[in-house]
Amino acid sequence: METGSPILLAAVSLVSALQMGYLAARVGWSRMAHKIMPPAVTGPPEFERTFRAHQNCVEFYPLFLVILWTCGTFFSEVTAAGGGIVYMVARQMYFNGYVNSTKKRLHGFYLTVAVFFSLALLSTIGIVRLMLLQYFDIHH
To answer: CB burial class (10 A; 0-12, 13-18, 19+) of residue 9?
Structure first.
């Protein structure tokens, strides 16, 4: 293994994948508790909120991974990994809040969006900086 390997990005990616597995299990546990057999996705409000919270996390996940790795590659691996950890905490806050009440999801959602846009902005800065250096020989 090279010393320059993106170990922090890999670690955050792995932990986030495990988190996604845990959230999927929560949907399964909710199915069992409410006796909802697949492929049904409707039922008591508690089940529907759990299912929807997980589905929203699934929808955001590919975007998160792209932005995490782009920021870590072109801006700073440490910054990206830190942002990734905050993102996972925010997603857990979102999920737990949503399961309890749709209004309780908002704190986690706002934190998720803040981290998402921060990492995207830093990714853009890193890419533009490298493009200026590599293609226009402009040094900062």
So the answer is: buried
- pLDDT tens digits for 1-12? 557 899 999 999
The rounded distance, in Å, linking the Cα atoms of 35 and 17 is 27
Tokens at residue 132, please?
A: 């200026």
Is residue 98 within 8 A of residue 47, CB to CB? The reply is no
* Amino acid present at 41: V
Among 49, 53, 87, 54, residue whose Cα is nearest residue 68: 87
Q: Looking at the chain, how many residues does it have?
A: 140
Examine residue 44 and say whether the peptide bond preceding it is cis (omega within 30 degrees of 0).
no
C-beta atoms surrounding 80 within 10 Å: 27
Residue 125 has which token pair? 């800065």
Q: What tokens appear for 26 in the block? A: 């929560």
Paired tokens of 11: 């670690």
Q: pTM (2 decimals)? A: 0.93
Q: Report how far apart the first and last C-alpha atoms of the chain are (Å, whole number).
A: 32
Please write the tens of the pLDDT for every residue from 101-134.
999 999 999 999 999 999 999 999 999 999 999 9
